[in-house]
Amino acid sequence: MKRPPIAAVALGLLAALASLIPIGYLLLRLFEGFEAALAELARARTLELLLNTIGLTVSVSLTALAIGAVQAWLTVRTNLPLAPVFAVLATLPLAIPSYVLALGYLSVFPSFSGFWAAWFTLSLATSPYVFLALSAALISSNFAAEEVARSLGKNRWQVIQSVTWPQVRPAAFASVLLVALYTLSEFGAIAILRFDTFTRAIYNAYRGSFDRTSAAALALVLVALTLVVIYFERRYRGDRWQAPTAAGRKRRIDLGRARILAAFGLGIIGLFGAGVPLVSLIGWSVNQTGFDLLRLGELVASSLAVAIAAGVVIGIFALAISVWNLRYSSRLSGAVDLTAWAAHALPAVVVALALVYFGANLVPGIYQSIWLLLLGYLILFLPNALGLVGTPIALVPRSIEEVARSQGLSKNAALTKVVLPIALPGILAGVALASLTVLKELPATLLLRPNELDTLATELWQATEVLAYSQAAPYALALIIIAGVPALALNAQARKLISEVS
Amino acid sequence: MKLRGALVLTLLPILLLSGCSAEDNALLVYSGRSEALLGPLVEKFEQESGLDVEVRYAGSAELAAQLLEEGENSPADVFLAQDAGALGAAAKAGLLTGIPDEIYSLVPSGYSAADQSWVGVSGRARVLVYDPGKVSELPVSIFDLEDASWQGRIGIAPTNASFQAFVTAMRILNGDARTLAWLEAMKVNAVIYEKNGAILEAVEAGQLDAGLINHYYWYARAKDVGQAQMNSRLAQFQAADAGNLVNVAGVGILNSTDAAEQFVSFLLSETGQQYFAQETREYPLVEGISPADELTPLADIPTPAIDLSDLDTLAETLELIRQAGLI
Question: How far is Cα A53 from Cα A45, in angstroms, rounded to an integer?
Answer without folding.
Answer: 12
